[in-house]
């Protein structure tokens, strides 16, 4: 067995059965090994940013890592923006990156680069395999590293001769370490805060926002009056009718400060205290008031769901069942396109169990309010602020959950970063409905410009914020990638197209001119 096959078979033995790839010459032996191991599902992306973003979306829903397969330093470099987002999401990803044969590096050929230096900022575990006999062990240790709580990125660099040399073997996966619970004193302190009667918020992340963790948080909130919150850059939030209500932290600085002004206590579960994305002249970046007592119940890497269950036990709560409202949908709107009307249409039609991938930026600010009473669904967001994640994230989520509908909400500007994901959706026949809000602007930058006290933007500045002249044609772009598309010029047309997309099979795109 060569080194490449030992890596792929070790991945499968360790539960890594999906590979998002964009390989090159140095990875040919890994590609050949993938061809010999049918247990692993290979998904091709036409750009590495699609590959890494898809691995992120897969991990969020599958709760285990996929692998990527990337070509040398430039290929890895092309995927870094969405690896940045994935690192902020604390999800497990295992990158396989090819390297030149060890004896070829001395020739300093055009694609030679310092791959470890490129990988290091976003890789909690990083190794270059030294021999075929060690490659399987390296892959096994990379799996363990990726799956170490709260989830992290592991990068294994494989020189071509390590891949093609014989002497490889499948390595057994060492036992995974369970994330630790917080100390009893930490749990008791949080319980005392909740008993005090002071207005308290619980800001949660990770698996505290879905499944057993969210159920425990809902019981705590129902019994104590605490407010449940999720970070604005949320990884995954389970929400809708019958689900404990969790509000999202506001993005805009003044709105965030207003949101937190009533709280004198804040309990953190896998999250950090809320602050603005950016600094503004003569303004504080902190959302909480100076009088707010902030306590960390569970740090990143600890057992969030276990911590919330321990807190519920310490509070001696009665089992009140799931705390959540009834299904209440907004009426189906009609008439001219408005942002409020678009949000209402989505809230009216959203099917149960949908995965909503949201990078709608300024056009989607009313979406979460309009879908609060929709049937249960999951909401995935941009965790690192690097735009161009929505369509790749939708690819990975759809691959992880083939029986669930995926609704991908994208702005036109951010969508252009990784529109190659449409081709992958078509190739894989993924059940994704993509809505592109086409305002022909980087509208968020216009708003940020106004915040910084530098006056009104002049013609040059506006030229960097507006993406018209010519306007992008998303229907034609989608058609060129094999995805049928339509343009909705009224709320009636949008509702009809959205219903058709959500009830149909395979990918479809709706462009909404704004």
Notes on the protein architecture:
This protein is an alpha/beta fold. The protein is 38% helix and 17% strand. The chain has 21 helices and 18 strands. The chain has helices at residues 3-13, 28-36, 48-62, 72-78, 80-89, 115-119, 132-146, 160-164, 184-195, 211-224, 253-260, 304-314, 339-349, 367-370, 390-400, 412-415, 421-428, 443-451, 459-465, 474-480, 491-503, and strands at 18-22, 41-44, 66-70, 93-99, 125-128, 153-159, 200-204, 227-230, 237-239, 247-248, 265-269, 293-298, 355-359, 377-380, 406-411, 432-438, 485-487, 508-513. The strands form three sheets. It has a seven-stranded mixed sheet, with helices on both faces. Helix 3 (48-62) packs parallel to helix 5 and helix 10 packs parallel to helix 12 (304-314). It is globular, with a radius of gyration of 24 Å.
Mean pLDDT: 96
Radius of gyration of CA atoms, rounded to a whole number = 24 Å
- Can you give the helix content as a percent range? 25-40%
Gross geometry = globular
Order the strands across the largest sheet as they lie in space: 9-14-13-15-16-18-17
Structure, briefly:
By secondary structure, the chain is an alpha/beta fold. It contains 21 helices and 18 strands.
Topology:
Layout: H1 3-13, E1 18-22, H2 28-36, E2 41-44, H3 48-62, E3 66-70, H4 72-78, H5 80-89, E4 93-99, H6 115-119, E5 125-128, H7 132-146, E6 153-159, H8 160-164, H9 184-195, E7 200-204, H10 211-224, E8 227-230, E9 237-239, E10 247-248, H11 253-260, E11 265-269, E12 293-298, H12 304-314, H13 339-349, E13 355-359, H14 367-370, E14 377-380, H15 390-400, E15 406-411, H16 412-415, H17 421-428, E16 432-438, H18 443-451, H19 459-465, H20 474-480, E17 485-487, H21 491-503, E18 508-513
Parallel strand pairs: 1-2, 1-3, 3-4, 4-6, 5-6, 7-8, 7-11, 8-10, 11-12, 13-14, 13-15, 15-16, 16-18, 17-18
Antiparallel strand pairs: 9-14
């Amino acid at each position: 067995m060569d080194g490449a096959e030992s890596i792929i078979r070790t991945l499968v033995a360790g539960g890594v059965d999906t590979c998002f790839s964009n390989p090159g010459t140095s990875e040919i032996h890994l590609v050949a090994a993938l061809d010999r191991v049918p247990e692993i599902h290979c998904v091709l992306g036409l750009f590495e940013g699609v590959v890494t973003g898809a691995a992120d979306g897969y991990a969020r829903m599958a709760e285990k890592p996929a692998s990527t397969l990337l070509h040398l330093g430039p290929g890895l470099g092309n995927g870094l923006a969405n690896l940045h987002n994935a690192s902020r999401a604390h999800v497990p990803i295992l990158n396989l990156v090819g390297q030149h044969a060890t004896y070829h590096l001395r020739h300093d050929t055009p694609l030679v680069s310092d791959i470890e230096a490129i990988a290091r900022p976003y890789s909690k575990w990083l190794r270059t395999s030294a021999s075929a006999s060690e490659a399987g062990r390296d892959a096994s240790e990379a799996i363990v590293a990726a799956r170490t709580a709260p989830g992290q990125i592991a990068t294994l660099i494989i020189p071509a001769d390590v891949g093609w040399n014989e002497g490889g073997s499948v390595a057994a996966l060492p036992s995974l370490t369970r994330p630790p619970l917080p100390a009893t004193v930490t749990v008791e302190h949080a319980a005392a805060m909740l008993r005090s009667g002071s207005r308290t918020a619980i800001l949660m992340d990770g698996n505290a926002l879905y499944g057993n963790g969210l159920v425990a948080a809902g019981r705590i909130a129902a019994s104590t009056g605490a407010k449940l919150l999720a970070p604005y850059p949320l990884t995954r939030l389970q929400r809708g009718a019958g689900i404990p209500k969790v509000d999202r932290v506001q993005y805009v600085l003044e709105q965030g400060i207003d949101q937190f002004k009533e709280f004198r206590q804040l309990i953190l579960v896998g999250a950090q205290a809320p602050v603005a994305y950016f600094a503004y002249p003569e303004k504080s970046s902190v959302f909480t008031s100076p009088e707010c007592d902030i306590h960390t119940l569970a740090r990143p890497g600890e057992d969030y769901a276990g911590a919330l269950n321990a807190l519920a036990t310490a509070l001696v709560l009665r089992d009140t069942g799931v705390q959540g409202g009834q299904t209440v949908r907004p009426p189906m709107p009609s008439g001219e396109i408005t942002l409020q009307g678009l949000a209402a249409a989505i809230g009216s039609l959203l099917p149960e169990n949908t995965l909503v991938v949201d990078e709608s930026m300024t056009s989607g600010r009313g979406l979460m309010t309009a879908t609060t009473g929709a049937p249960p669904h999951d909401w995935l967001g941009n965790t690192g602020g690097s735009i161009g994640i929505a369509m790749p994230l939708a690819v990975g989520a759809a691959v992880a959950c083939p029986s669930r509908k995926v609704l991908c909400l994208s702005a036109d500007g951010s969508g252009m970063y990784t529109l190659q994901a449409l081709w992958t959706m078509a190739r894989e026949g993924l059940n994704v409905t993509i809505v592109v809000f086409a305002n022909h602007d980087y509208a968020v930058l216009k708003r940020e410009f106004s915040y910084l006290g530098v006056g009104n933007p002049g013609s040059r500045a506006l030229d960097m914020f507006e993406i018209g002249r010519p306007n992008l044609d998303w229907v034609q772009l989608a058609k060129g990638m094999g995805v049928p598309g339509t343009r909705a010029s009224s709320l009636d047309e949008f509702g009809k197209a959205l219903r058709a997309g959500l009830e149909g099979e395979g990918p479809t795109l709706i462009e909404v001119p704004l």
